[in-house]
Amino acid sequence: MPMRSYHLDSGAGLAGLTVREQEEPVPGAGQVLIAVRAVSLSFRELLVLRGDYVLPVKPDVVPVSDGAGEVVAVGPGVTGARVGDRVTAALFPSWQDGPFGVEHLPQLGGSLDGMLTERALVDAEALVPVPGHLSYQEAATLPCAAVTAWNALTGDGDGLRPGQTLVVQGSGGVSLFALQFGKLLGARVIATTSSPEKAARLAELGADEVIDYRAVPDWPGRVRELTDGRGADRVVDVAGLLEQSLRAVAIAGQVACVGFVSGTAAPIDPKVLFGSGATVRAVAVGSRAQFLAMNRAIEAHCLHPVIDRVFPFAQAPDAYRYYASGQALGKVVITV
Fold it and tell me: Dmax over Cα atoms in the chain, in whole Å?
């Protein structure tokens, strides 16, 4: 049975994103075939497109790590999945639990084919059930941005606690999930943003305080004012501007570094790092066990991801362009 898939070579840019028809694959031992219903874009997809992704990307890869769909066939030896199951897949299929290691480097939409296809062949061990109250479009937003945010807040062995203060930066996917999870975990959430319009939307989504960093360039100073000089217990840094985050965090607090969308930042002054008394932890997505724990919390609190815009499969390049424009406040989804 024929199916369509998008393909690209990392670094070829949007012009290199092409769609082809091919025969539907047959799952081998330990594999399942998923009828993909929706995928979502995250910043890693732009890095793959530009050739800037830090992990290996195979030639002619089927891109996009994040997707959700229905199991339509199972291979020999598969016992944990059945035809008809609604599933997503962990971005790092072999990272089941515990610390990350080089043995877990293979990743969907990178060294392994991803989800921007009508049928995806995935290792059964990577599967994660979709929370019952979520649509496929909503579930497709979870594997990268949501798991990263969840890890940033809970994956250090201590975790964000009720009554603590969390700072989230901007209105990208990780930051919005961190805002939602922060409220779910009982924290006070301070959000930074670049415009009054985005500030209003972040307040609607539950931010207790919003700082427009264009109007208030010294946003770390404002965080300290809002916390009676103490600073935030945790900062989720998506921009790579770690020195600013360290000035905003409390002594013995934590800065979760989840990316560097601002490009190359100035080096950190060791005196600022030492003087902060804080921990800086690099966060790269999370394990399947963390994904499952996150989904239990999502289901228990009936949380819904924030989706900005949905594109049809045939308009996937337009979805990439819109996401790259920076206009979205919420996830950009492609239906399949």
Answer: 64
Q: What are the structural domains of the chain? A: 2-144+285-335 (3.90.180.10), 156-282 (3.40.50.720)
C-alpha torsion sign, points 258, 261, 266, 272? negative
**Distance of alpha carbon 302 from alpha carbon 309, whole angstroms:** 21
pLDDT tens, residue by residue, 115-159: 999 999 999 999 999 999 999 999 999 999 999 999 999 998 889
The structure's pTM equals 0.96
Record the tokens describing residue 153, joined without a space: 């807040």
Query: Cβ distance 7 to 61 under 8 Å?
Result: yes
Tell me how far CA of residue 206 lies from CA of 18, 179, 184, 219, 234, in angstroms: 40, 7, 10, 19, 17
pLDDT at 14: 95
158-168 pLDDT, tens digit per residue, is: 899 999 999 99
